[in-house]
Amino acid sequence: MPKGKVRHMFAGGNTSLGFYSFFHNILPLNDARRIFIIKGGPGTGKSNFMEGIAHEIGKRGYDIEYMHCSSDPKSLDGIVLPQIGTALVDGTAPHVVDPKIPGAVDEIINLGEYWNDEGISKHRNEISEISKEIGMNFARAYRYLKAAASIYEDTSAIFDMAQNTGKLNIIANDIEKTLMNGIDISEKEGRERSLFASAITPDGLKNHLDTALIGSKVYVLKCDGGNSSEKILNRIKKAAIERGLDVECFYCALNPTKLEHVIIPEMTVSFTTSNSYHNLDADIYMTLDLNEYTDKSILEKYYEIIQYNRKEFDKLLERAVYTLSKAKALHNELESYYVSNMDFEAVEMCREVIIERILDYTR
Q1: Is the bond preceding residue 202 a cis peptide, omega within 30 degrees?
Q2: Beta strands at 247-251 and 259-264: parallel, antiparallel or unpaired
Q3: Taking a C-beta distance cutoff of 8 angstroms, is the pair 108, 276 a contact?
Q4: I need a labelling partner for 266 at 20 to 30 A (CA). Which of 23, 83, 129, 159 fits?
Q5: Per-residue H/E/C for the chain
Q6: With a threshold of 0.90, does the pTM exceed it?
Q7: What backbone torsions phi and psi does residue 96 show, to the nearest 5 degrees?
Q8: Angle, to 10 degrees, between the axis of helix 303-339 and the axis of helix 124-162?
């Protein structure tokens, strides 16, 4: 049996605005046959539960989307089985997810049913103290990221000042006309699905852009600074949606309101931003170097400021990653209190039941 398409991405991120969630976009309700929301404490096996299901369904040739956890990129926050219209999602903090159409579309799987209450209660004080310390580390990491974003914004302002806006408008218009040639404006707008292709994690910057764009004709917008690529991407996104085409939009790991990559699945085409923080390791159809339309004399004038900003930005980003790693170490300690009090055989039996239910949907 041929293998399905496998994609990796993030549905939530550690950003300058704190934890930012796109969990409502993992699988739109209109496309969903069933969404399983998994509840349970740390160490209850939520990630392994989902990974095991993905493995079994993937063996049968179905496409799989893995939603990785930005606070532990080796763990999962969710999986999507798009051809089956099914998703499994970690519904615990910080990405609290609750059913929107209970029973008809979503349902809760509570792995807390398989733990030993008495065994966990003995460590109530330790669990409370560790949880508090984890929260403090995340709050501190977000303050570092907020400071880093302010410095990055200052550098972007310089690059924007140096950018030839008129030329960018011409490029954006040419792309739109070529891409949308012969496609009329639709009475029904397309939909946007927002996610992250990269994340700031305890292990540093992690990027799954190559798998997120898999199967599409890739246009690269090379942009060392500023918002030039975002202006073009927003134009492409708007044009596609106006013509009734759905789009997948991937936002910046630091600033989750900044658009960095756009995919138009129906056209099997994608546009991606390339810079020093995320490069694409995939086949590229065409590269547009937006740096060519930058006034180098302005960048030279502010060279010292740009270099200082980059140095300070990297230091703050490194400190944020370090702080996230401290939170991760504490989380591992917290998990130990639950792991030793879990009935994982019962969890495995529950997983087998869910696998059979999902396979029933394919019949």
Answers
A1: no
A2: antiparallel
A3: no
A4: 23
A5: CCCCCEEEEECEEEECCEEEECHHHCCCHHHCCEEEEEECCCCCCHHHHHHHHHHHHHCCCCCEEEEEECCEEEEEEEEEECCCCEEEEECCCCCCCCCCCECCCEEEEEHHHHECHHHHHCCHHHHHHHHHHHHHHHHHHHHHHHHHHHHHHHHHHHHHHHECHHHHHHHHHHHHHHHCCCCCCCCCCCCEEEEECEEEECCEEEECHHHHCCCCEEEEEECCCCCHHHHHHHHHHHHHHHCCCCEEEEECCCCCCCEEEEEEHHHCEEEEEEECCECCCCCCCEEEEHHHHECHHHHHHCHHHHHHHHHHHHHHHHHHHHHHHHHHHHHHHHHHHHHCCECHHHHHHHHHHHHHHHHHHHC
A6: yes
A7: -65, 125
A8: 160
Please choose, from the candidates 344, 357, 354, the residue with its C-alpha nearest in 3D space to the C-alpha of residue 40.
344
User: Rounded to a whole number, what is the distance in angstroms from the first to the last CA of the chain?
Assistant: 17
User: Do 35 and 86 contact (CB within 8 A), yes or no?
Assistant: yes
Closest by alpha carbon to 34, among 122, 105, 117, 103? 105
Taking each helix axis as running N to C, give the angle between helix 344-362 and helix 46-58, from 0 to 180 degrees, rounded to the nearest 10.
40
Q: What is the pLDDT along the chain (363 residues), one digit of tens a residue?
A: 567 899 999 999 999 999 999 998 898 888 899 999 999 989 999 999 999 999 999 999 999 999 999 999 999 999 999 999 999 999 988 877 887 888 888 999 999 999 999 999 999 999 999 999 999 999 999 999 999 999 999 999 999 999 999 999 999 999 999 999 999 999 999 999 999 999 999 999 999 998 988 888 999 999 988 899 999 999 999 999 999 999 999 999 999 999 999 999 999 999 999 888 877 777 889 999 999 999 999 999 999 999 999 999 999 999 999 999 999 999 999 999 999 999 999 999 999 999 999 999 998
b/e per residue, 49-79, with b = 16+ CB within 10 A? bbbbbbebbbeeebbbbbbbbbbbbebbbbb
Contact 97, 70 (CB under 8 A): no
63/265 Cα distance (integer angstroms): 14
